[in-house]
Amino acid sequence: LHKLSVSYLNDFSDNLLLYMWDQGVSTRKLKNAVKLLTSALPEKSEQIIEVREGIKEELIALCAPNLTQELINKRFQVRMSEILVPALFLYPPEAPIHTPTPILFQQTGSTRYRISHGKEIATPQVLVFSERYDNWWELRGVKAQHVRTSSDANAWIIDGNPSADEIVIVYKGEEYFYYGKLVSILTILLVTLYLGRRIVGSVTHHDKR
Description:
209 residues, five-stranded antiparallel beta sheet, 2 helices, 21% helix, flat
């Protein structure tokens, strides 16, 4: 999945169209055509695009009777970004790369994924996690080597039997952020308590005098 974002200022045409084509190996097919709003204020158009198998690229074009390259450069900003949907797959070493086994998992936090029945995973295996590669992702509950795939995803070469029935993928950066925030809160509480005791002690000493 991809997201197409077009930011624009169209105060020059009431017939401005955004076209999109699927470009295959030898064929081109019109996918969509959207009429962009006419306004004196900046506007934004967003679309979710599903790229089908066999499509080499997505072609995008703007069309209007009085559209010029200068207007495109000054008043349009087009951005295409990939939408990553987390997925987990197992690749046995002896199997072809195109025959993965999907793995059922549960997302238990914004950056935490739990795989049940971990002990049933035969080794050796390669576990692929479709999020963008980051060495802060960690696989817990089994001995594994974290590597980067050719598609820039995370993968772990599992070469040991799972030590627990539950395997967990976590992002260590969020854990460190949580612990850092907890330490900051405790520090503020301790300083507040210390200052409060100093103030109370000072007032009590003043009253005695």
